[in-house]
Amino acid sequence: MNPSWRASVLGSQLAELLRRPGRLVTTGLSVLVAAFVVFATVMAQQITANTTVDHFRGTPEAADLIATSGEDAAAISATALKRIRALPGVAEAAGRVETGAALAGVSERWLEIHSDPGTGPLSQVRLVRGSYPDRAGEIAVNRRAAEEWELAPGTPITLLLPDPKDADKTVKVSLTVTGVVKSTATLEQQAGGYTNDALVTPLMNLPGFQHVDIRARAGVRAGELSHQVRGVLDKVPSTASLASGSTVRAAEAREALSGDVREFFQIISVFLTVAVLAAAMVATSAFRIVFAQRLRQLALLRAIGAQQRRLVTALAVEGVLVGAVSSTLGVLTALGAGHLAPPVARGLAAQDLSAPGFPLLDAALVVAGAVLVTVCAVLAPALSAAAVSPLQALRAAGTVTGERGISRTRLAAGTLLTAVATGLAILQLGDMPQPGELDYDRDNAMLLTVASAGLAFLALITLGPLLVRPVLTVAGWPLRRLSGTGRLAVSGVGGTPRRAAAVSLVVALGVALVSGALVGLDGVKGYQERTAAVEAPADFRVAGDGKVLDAHAVRQFARSPQLTHVTGYRTLQATIGPEGARQEIQISDLDPDALPTGRDIDTATGSLSDLGPGHAVVASDVAALFGVQAGDTLTLPSHRGVIKLTVAATLPGEGPNMANVLVAPSDLDRMGASQGATGILADAATEGLAGRGKAHRALEDLIRTHLPGRHDLGISILADTRDSNRDTIQMTGTITLGLVALTVLIAIVGVTATTSLTTIERTREFGLLRALGLGGAALRRTVAMEAGLYGVLGGVLGLCLGIPYAWILVRVVVTGAPLRLPGAQLLLVFTGLAALTALAGLLPARRASRITPMTALGDGE
To answer: For helices 484-494 and 776-813, what crossing angle results, to 10°?
Structure first.
C-alpha cells in the first residue's frame, strides 16, 4: 500500500470524526471527566499538603534563620535575643516558647501557652477581636478557649504556675484576656493562650526561649546573617544550633506529611486507579458503539483494498486525538477549580486552605496517561470493527452490538473466576477473627478479601451479558406493568445485553464502592459507639480517692440546669480467681440503662436487659477466668462469705466505666459496699463546646458549694477523646464517600454517552415508532427510562457485590465492629442513582423526540 493510500485511510477516518462532532464529544466525555478527577485529586493533594504543612509547622515563611536550643542545652536567653535584634543584618527576631499552665479551679483545665509577636511577618496569629497583649498581666486566647470557657476581652482568668521558690508548689497568677486570636500555624484542637516574647518569660518563670525566628534585612546574605548571629550566641551562655528557615520548614513539612497523611494519599491513589478503570470501561463501550455505527464505511474501505492493520492504526489515531483533546480540557478545568477552591472555602466556610501550585509535570503525565488509557480502550473495538467484511456492511448497524451470547471461552473464564472468588471468600469466612482477637494476620486477611472482591468483579464483567436479562426481568417488572413506554424501555435495554452490561457494570462499580463504604463506615461507627460507651459513658466523671459522696450533694448535681443524665454509682474492689491466678477486679452497680450510651454496649452472650437482683454482667477477662457465659453461675466474694449470681450477659471487652462486673445495687450491698456513691457520671445539658464549658463550670461550683474540703475530687472530661474519635470517623467517611462518588460521576457520564450514541444508532427505529403513532413525549420517556434502567441494573449488581465484601473487610480490620446495614442510606443511593441515570438520559431523549418518520427513510446516521 502506497503512502497516499495510507494517508487516505487515515484521512477518511479523521474526516468522519470531524463530520460527526457529537460523537467526538460523547466518546471524549468520559476521558475528560477522568482527567478532571485525576488532576483535581492532584490539586486536592497539593491543597491538603500545603494546608497541613502551614497549619502544623512552627516556622513562618518569613523566617530566614532559626536558632534552636538543644533539648539538653540552656535556653536562648532574653539577653541573647536582645543582642540578635541589634545586629545590622537582622530586620526582626521573635523568641518562641511552647509551654502550658492550668487554670485555677476544682479540676485542672490546661491552657497551652505560646509566645508570638502578634503582628508583622513573623507573627503566626491573626486577631479576631479585642487587642493583643502589650503589658504584664495580659493574655490573648484562641477561639476554642474563648468558646469553651466563655472568655472574651476583659475576662479575668487565674493560672496555676510553679512557685519559683518551691517547684513542688504552685502560685496563682491573675491575668486579663485582652483579645481572641486565630492561629495560622496550628489547628485549634487545644485551648491556647498567646503573648509576646517580652512578657512570656517572666510570666512563666522561664530562663529563655526554645528557639528564635530571625528575618534578615533586604540584601543580607544567608551566610553573613548566620555569621553575625553565631557571633552573638558564642558570647552568651548558649549552645544553640543554627539552621536556615527553608531547611527547618522542609523538615517540618516531611514530618507533617508522614504517617496518617501519607497513608491517606496512598488510599487516594487506590481510588484514582478505580476511577481510571471506570473511565476506561466507559470509553471502551463508547468506541465500540461508534465503530459499530461505521461498519458500512469500514467495510467499503476493506472492499477497495484497505488492510485491517491500517484501519486499526487509523482508529487508534482517532483515539489519541480524542484522548489528547479531552484530557487537556479536563486538566485545565481541574487547574482552575483547584486555584478557585481556597478563596471559595474562605468565603463560604471560613476555612483557611492554602493555595496549590502549578504542577506542570503532573499535568503532562495526566494527559499522557489519559491518551494511553484511551488508546487501550480503542484497541479492542478497533480490532473488532476493522475485521468487518463487505457482507457484514449489508446488515443494520446495530446487528453486531445487539448480539446476545458470549463465547464458550468467555463463559468458562467467567465460571472459573466466580469459583475462585467464592472459594477465597469462603476461606476467609472460615478463618474470621473473633471480637477482641488480636493474634491474627490482618494484612493477609485484607489481601485475601480484596483479591476475592477483585476476582468477583472480573467475573461480573465476563458474565455480565448473561446476567442482564434475568436481573432485568425482575427489576423491569414494574415498568412493564406501568405502561407501553415502560415495555419499550425494558425491551430496548434487554435487546442489547452486551451494551447494557458494559454500561451497567461501570455503575455497579460505583455502587459497590459507595455501598461498601457506607456499610464499612456504619460498622466502624458502631464500634466507636460501643467503645465510647465503655471508655466514656458520659461527658464528665466526678470521682475522688474512693471516699463516698454525700447523697444530698448527688441530688444537687441532678438538679443543675447545666447537667443531664446525672448518675451516681458505687464501686467495690475484690480479689477473685483460683490460687496462683488471682486478680483484682472492680465491681460496680452502674446501671447501663441510666445513660444514653448504655444502648450502645455490645454483649458476647446474653442480654443487658436481664441485669437485676441475683444477676451479673461479666467483662471478657472475668468470663475467660471462670469460663462462664450467659446462664452460668458466678461466685463472688462478700463480707459474709460468698455470693452466687447468674450471669445475665458477658461482654466482648471491659464493662462501662472500666468495671469488670456489673451487679444490682442490692447485690452490691450484700457484698459489703458502703451506701454513698463512689462517683458521678453526667452529660452537658446542651451540645457544643460552649455547653460543655458551662457544664464544667457548674460541676466546679457544685463541688465548691456542696462538697467543701473534698480536695481529692477531680472532674474528668471523658467527652474529648470520644469527640475526637467521632470527628476522625466523620472526616474519614466524608473523604471516602467523596472519592468513591467520583466513580459514580464517571458512571453517570458513561450512561449519558452511551444513551446519546444509542440514540444516533437507533434513528431508524425511533423514526418507525414515530410513524406508528408514538408521540415525542412518550419517546422521551422511553429513552429516559432506558437510561434509568442502566442505573437500576448497576445498582442491583453493585449492592450484591459491595455489601458482603464490606462486611467481611470490616470484621477483618476491626474485629469488634458490628455487622450493620444502613438500609435507609443504601435505599437512597439506589433510588438516587436510578434517578440520576434517568436524568442523564434526558438530553439524548430530547434529541430522539425530534426524529421524524421521514428520518427513518434516510441513512440512519
So the answer is: 60
User: Which residues does 221 contact at the CB level (< 8 Å), separation at least 6?
Assistant: none
Instruction: Tell me the one-letter amino acid at 790.
Output: Y
On average, the pLDDT of the chain sits at 79
Compute the distance between CA of residue 59 and CA of residue 256 in angstroms, rounded to an integer. Answer: 13
Task: State the Cα–Cα distance between residues 164 and 861, nearest whole angstrom.
Answer: 92
**What one-character-per-residue DSSP string does 232-291 give?**
HHHHTT---EEEEHHHHHHHHHHHHTSTHHHHHHHHHHHHHHHHHHHHHHHHHHHHHHHH
CA distances from 552 to 440, 446, 542, 549, 682 (A): 51, 55, 15, 9, 16
Give SS3 for 87: coil
DSSP codes joined into one string, 610-643? G-STTEEEE-HHHHHHHT--TTSEEEEEETTEEE
The rounded distance, in Å, linking the Cα atoms of 650 and 737 is 36
Cell representation of residue 679:
462517683
Closest CA to 315 of 364, 402, 386: 386
Given a cut of 50, whether residue 860 has pLDDT beyond it is no
Place of cell 463541688: 703
Helix or strand or coil: residue 817?
Answer: coil
Distances (CA, A) of 469 to 8, 496, 844: 43, 10, 24
Per-state percent for the chain, helix, strand, coil, to nearest 5: 60, 15, 25
Cell representation of residue 329:
480540557
H/E stretch holding 19 reads helix 3-19
Which residues are registered as beta bridge partners of 243?
66
Beta strands in 34-151 (DSSP E): 65-68, 90-96, 98-103, 109-115, 125-130, 138-142
Residue 687 C-alpha cell reads as 451540645
Distance of CA 294 to the CA centre of its chain: 45
End-to-end C-alpha distance for the chain, whole angstroms: 30
What dihedral do alpha carbons 783, 785, 788, 793 form, nearest 10°? -110
Prediction pTM value: 0.69
Q: Residue 595: which of 569, 618, 615 has the closest Cα?
A: 569
At 144, the amino acid letter reads: R
Task: Give the CA count within 13 Å in the CB-facing half-sphere of 702.
Answer: 27
pLDDT over 80 at 855, yes or no: no
pLDDT in tens, 165-188: 776 778 889 999 999 998 877 666
CA distance 489 to 475: 12
Strands laid side by side in the 714-717 sheet: 563-569, 679-684, 540-543, 714-717
Q: H or E segment at 518?
A: helix 497-535
Q: How far, in Å, CA of 286 to CA of 751, rounded?
A: 10
Going by the DSSP 8-state scheme, the letter that residue 104 receives in this structure is S
Q: pLDDT digits over 24-68, tens only? A: 566 677 677 778 877 877 787 777 777 767 766 678 888 999 998
Q: Considering only 9-13, 66-70, 440-444, which range has the smallest mean pLDDT? A: 9-13
Mapped onto helix, strand or coil, the DSSP state of residue 794 is helix
Query: Is-contact 113 193, C-beta < 8 A?
Result: yes
Dist. CA 765–CA 420, nearest whole Å: 42
- Residue type for position 54: D
Whether residue 129 contacts residue 120, with contact meaning beta carbons closer than 8 Å, is answered with no
d(CA 448, CA 435): 19
Q: Which residues pair with 141 in a beta bridge?
A: 180, 193
Angle at which helices 497-535 and 442-475 cross, to 10°: 130
C-beta of residue 194 within 8 angstroms of C-beta of residue 140: yes
- Give the integer Cα–Cα distance in Å for 822 and 809: 16
Q: What is the pLDDT of residues 218-250, one digit of tens each?
A: 989 988 999 999 888 877 666 688 999 888 888
pLDDT for res 811: 81
Alpha carbons 754 and 552: distance in angstroms, whole number: 74
